Amino acid sequence: MKRKREYDFWLLFTVMVLLAMGVIMVFSASSYYAAYNWNNKFHFLIRQLLWSCVGLVCMFVISNIDYRRLAIISPVLMLISIVLLILVAIPGIGAKYNDARRWFNLGFTTFQPSELMKLSLIMFLSFSLAKNSGKLRFFFRGLVPYLLIVGFVDLLLLLEPHYSCAVLITLVAVVILFCAGARIFHFLAIGVPTIAAAACLVISSEYRLQRFLAFLDPFADPQGSGYQAVNSLYAIASGSIFGRGLGKSLQKYLYIPEPQNDFIFSIVAEELGFVGAFTVIVLFLLLIWRGVRISMNAPDMMGSLMAIGITSLVAIETIINIAVVTATLPVTGMPLPFISYGGTSMLFVLASMGILLNISRNSVNNFNPVRGSELLKRARQGEG
Amino acid sequence: MKSSKRKNIKSMHHKTASKAPVDLKSVRKKKRAEEIPNQPNTGMLKRREFFMLLVFTLSLFFMLYRVGFIQFVKGEEYQKKAYYTQTQKRQINPKRGTIYDRNGKGLAISASVDTVSVNPNALRSELNNDPGELQELAEGLAEILDMDAMDVMKVFNRNSRFEYVKRKIDRELGARVRNYVVQEKGIKNIYIDEDSKRYYPNGSLAAHILGFTGIDDQGLAGIELKLDATLKGMPGKIMNEVDVLGRPISFSKERYVEAVDGYDVFLTIDETIQYFTQKAIEQAALDYNLKRGAAAIVMNPNTGEVLAMASYPDFDPNHPDAKPYFVDNPEWLGFASVEDTELLWQTVFRNRAVNDTYEPGSTFKAITAAAALEEGVVTPETTVVCKPYSLAGHTINCWRAGGHGQEDFTHAVYNSCNPVFVQEALAVGIEKFYTYVRMFGFQKRTGLEISGEPTDEEYRNLWHKEPKEIDLAVTGFGQRFQISPIQLASAYCAIANGGNLMKPMLVKQISDSNGNIIQKFEPQVVRKVISEETSKTIRTILEGVVSEGTGKNAYVSGYRIAGKTGTSETLQTESEGRYVVSFAAFAPADKPEIVVLLVLDHPQVAMHLRSGGILAAPVAGKLCEDILEYLQVERQYSERDMKEMTEEVYVPSLVGLTVSEAIEKLKAYGLKYVVEGSQAEDAVVKDQTPKADFSIPQNSTVIIYTEGSPENNMVPMPDLTNKTVDEATATMKNLGLNIRIRGEGMALRQQYEPGTPLQKGEVVDVEFMLLIAD
Q1: Cβ separation of B67 and A322 shorter than 8 Å?
Q2: Which of A273, A348, B165, B587 satisfies CB 3.0 to 4.6 Å to B561 for a cystine?
Q3: Mean pLDDT (whole number) for A252-273
Q4: How many other C-beta atoms are found inside a 10 Å radius of the C-beta of residue B765?
Q5: CB B343 within 8 A of CB B328
Q6: Looking at the predicted structure, is the pLDDT value of residue B8 above 50?
């Protein structure tokens, strides 16, 4: 018997509130920049609104598609993503911007295949692990093949290069593998030497060490390497408790480059103060809590892993973004989900929320350990 | 440790489980799942997912902590820095206070000018970074401002929000720049702001007192430096919140902090007296070719106010680094060169009246006399003997060989007898004498409000450390120690005013730009040094020095000038003439209103003329006369004055009269005559020398022509140098010339060079001088 189930209300609510804040903040942060560069202060507002609407439509459509159906096509999506990642790295096909070849120029917009890859990988890992989670206990038979897949994707991303996305995808994959039951000892066995090797690499070169340490004291070179961090700190500090007031940021007057993008959180903190920053962080906490709750209540392992993957994607992006903005981590290109301006990335975030919503609709009190494909079969037969 | 963590997670999980009824069944089925190798462990899955929730939550709380830390702990520091980068500040310079003389005449004035500045970053962005347009603008601006276009371009290309293009230009030029930049080109990021420029309307007048200012209107010397804080005021500013390129942002209001003008300073200086004083030493410097310049101070003895203070060579504070007249260097760079700057500070910028010290010589005898009289070791009538005095293997001679013999103390002062002053100083005794020295303010700064006076220690080092009798002996007549002119002038004030040492004053009053008095300076008595009685006695004696003694050349009929000459030799500078001649005076002697000190350093004149009595006294006398006349002090002619004054008469017109009529008329005027041509009584006078209405001394001779003309009756001017009055008068008379006698003693200067052809009967001014060795 088919039963219409409810969406997770709090998740939907949080997404809508964050999206609304995003549109407002993008307009506030970008107006001067847009007027300066495009002679139209609504340039980014219009696009953000448009993409939000498209994204919302996309979210609702996807939320009505059973995630198990989507999961079946995940290997195909994965293949497509890999092909696109290879293509984008080829000069002439991928568009180059800021020394990185990450985009396809579609004319009316640009498209980042890495965005698709994030989602594809989450779905593919969940799909595959739901079948093979038992094997994960074994190192070579279980964990290594998955790590090789992730490593291969990372390699493609490094070609562009797109380090921040590689780090993100790796972290999300580790979370999924961890939740699926990989042994902590195995992670340590791989993680510790990797980190040690990376540390050696950094320390071995004076230049790299300096670059790495530069973020610890951005004021050492406020006009050079520390410029973005310093201006971000100025913006946040200027906010104080209640902020300068909406629209009254001074740092958006080109002090922060592209203030509507990765550094939008500092504009939020400047205009809305600690109260605004607190609100945004609480909204993300709410979203993460709902996401984890959905994953814990998912009807099957595949849904659970997919939910935790999507949630941790958003969570890690948020944490890294705010860490960068508060000069806690070195500057890297990581947008703040829902709030930063961004066309296709917005689309994919909302699409993933659609998946999450769909999983929430399928929440069960009784966890069914039966494999996803079987469940799907039963669902088709009307047993769900 | 690990296991306990696991337990914790488990128990937490249970709580969640109880809230949301999830999994009684799943717990039961867990066992089964573990039995099937390829089945997922759902308990672990949930635990690990819950664990991730904790990780993410903690991470975000940490981020929240970071935001709070930045906003509340680092907030102020970062906000300050942010404010600094977000705000563009243009300074508005306050109007620097005016420096007035005691009568309110402006000596240093700030005039309004314009300053052109630019925001280079914003300008380039305003012109869309078009180098062509930038170049064109630079060329246009450079042409108006008379600059090199390359230099303007350099300024335009700086990575900066504020640069000066050209400072302190005429308002007229500023208006042209404004017209070009704003009206013609429509540029917003070049500013023409009001500024002020220091202007000294009287050029070098009081230059050493006023000092001068730098490009930022900061005082660099003199009162400008000493009272810089008072004069400069508080700068105002125009503040704008700007974008990264320095363009004002839309909602930012231009904040304007008004400048507070500096306070006006009224000096004790009198512009006119200062002018007389400067002219006097300048003339002396030219006449005597002073190798090391000159200094002069005029003070009001009753208040300690400095009425004039001059130093030579001087400079024009409008162009302080202009090449001094004595420099030949064709590559003079002024302040741009360290050497040139150093030279300026060592020469023209030196205020010799305060910065320099010298051996006072006999002018110091007034101090010795005061001490001796006050201590009662001598009275004006005490008989003393002036003959060479031997002490500790040294012999001290008077300037007149053999000395003046027996005389009273008054005449010993008139004659400036060194041996007598040695005796009196010794009679006072070392301890008491040096106490008087200190009481008169020597060995200590006077505290005049101007920079550059030596410190107490520097002053002390110019005296004998532990004076012995021989040191005291030479100190008694003013040698082998050094003082500054301002110290001696102050000491003379005390002698003149009844015995009170006054603190010398240069500043009378400070008021704000609306004329409200901020601070008024009152005369300050430092201490009582000598009694009114002693003061009176010395006043009388020093008046005698001028009327009868070594100061005779300072005598001015009608004014009772008292004073003392001084001549000192320095040992180090033989090649430059080694003498410092000076004259210290006050007048009128009975009720002094001015003290004048004149110091002429290293005169290059004939050896026998190098004395204070010959060189300094006449200059000081003339200066006193000018000042007293200006102060409208009435002349009181003594009987001697009346007797000595030769009356002048105006020559009557004789042309057309008969010889007898003309002679009659001349006799009535007290004039003599010589008739050229026909001596007949009825011959008609055709011409005369001197011409009618000339002022000539009585008893002069008028030449009357009945035939011929004065042009054909010429004689050459004789050389009268070193002739006495009688000799000179006779010489002139023999030639048929008239003489106007000025002064007494030996002829020093004559109106015409020897050999100049003169008409018979013409009147020639001849200056006479007493040759006095001290």
Answers
A1: yes
A2: B587
A3: 92
A4: 12
A5: no
A6: no
Question: Would you call A256 exposed, middle or buried from its count of C-beta atoms within 10 A (0-12, 13-18, 19+)?
Answer: buried
Give Rg (Cα) of chain B: 42
Confidence tier at A1 by pLDDT (50, 70, 90): very low
Give the separation between CA B505 and CA B522, rounded to whole angstroms: 9
In chain B, which residue's Cα lies nearest the Cα of A272? B71
Q: Is B513 exposed, middle or buried (0-12, 13-18, 19+ CB in 10 A)?
A: middle
d(CA A271, CA A249): 5
Residues of A in contact with B67 (CB under 8 A): 236, 269, 274, 277-278, 281, 322, 326
User: What ipTM is given for this predicted complex?
Assistant: 0.91
Where are chain A's structural domains? 9-380
Residue B257 pLDDT: 83
Residue A257 CA to residue B463 CA, distance in Å, equals: 72
- Give B748 or B485, the one with higher predicted confidence: B485
How many Cβ pairs closer than 8 A exist between chain A and B?
Answer: 166
pLDDT-derived band at B327, boundaries 50, 70, 90: confident
B36, pLDDT greater than 50: no
What average pLDDT does this structure show over B621-643?
A: 88
CB contact A32 to B (< 8 Å):
yes
CA distance linking residue A373 with residue A302, whole number of Å: 9
Lowest-pLDDT range of A364-373, B49-58, B268-277, B676-685: A364-373
Amino acid at B759: Q
Q: Which of A92-96, A355-359, B546-550 has the lowest mean pLDDT?
A: A92-96
Residues in chain B with CB shorter than 8 Å from the CB of A296 are: 16, 22, 46, 49-50
Say if residues B114 and B177 touch (Cβ distance below 8 Å): yes
Taking the CA atoms of B438, B441, B447 and B451 in sequence, report the sign of the dihedral they define.
Answer: negative
- Identify the structural domains of chain B with CATH numbers, from first to last: 2-73 (no CATH), 88-204+231-267 (3.90.1310.10), 361-642 (3.40.710.10), 644-769 (3.30.10.20)
CA dist A301 and B26 (Å) reads 13
Residues A126, A131, A134, CA angle at the centre, nearest 5°? 105
Distance CA B262, CA B258 (A): 13
- Tell me if residue B111 falls in helix, strand or coil: strand
CB B769 within 8 A of CB B618: yes
Spatial CB neighbours of A285, under 8 Å, sequence gap ≥ 6: B56, B57, B60
Residue A335 CA to residue A356 CA, distance in Å, equals 20
Local structure of B113: helix, strand or coil: strand
Q: Are A190 and A139 in contact (CB under 8 A)?
A: no
In the chain, the amino acid numbered A117 is M
A315 closest CB neighbour out of B21, B45, B56: B56
- pLDDT reading at B34 higher than 90: no
User: Which residues of B are part of the catalytic machinery?
Assistant: 362
**Residues of chain B above pLDDT 70, percent:** 93
Asked if residues A136 and A182 have their Cβ atoms less than 8 Å apart, the reply is yes
pLDDT interval class at B26 (50, 70, 90):
low
3-state secondary structure of B434: helix
Asked if the model's pLDDT at residue B653 lies above 60, the reply is yes
The torsion region of residue B706 among left (phi > 0), alpha (psi -120 to 50) and beta comes to: alpha
Query: By three-state DSSP, how is residue B481 classified?
Result: coil
Q: Under DSSP, is residue B721 helix (H, G, I), strand (E, B) or coil?
A: coil
What three-state secondary structure class fits B401? coil
Length of chain B equals 774
- Left if phi > 0, otherwise alpha if psi is -120 to 50, otherwise beta: which for B693? left
**Collapsing DSSP states into helix, strand and coil, what is residue B96?**
coil
Distance CA B103, CA B268 (A): 9
Nearest partner of A340 among A262, A281, A270, A283, judged by Cα: A262
What's the angle, vertex CA B84, arms to CA B80 and CA B88, rounded to 5? Answer: 145
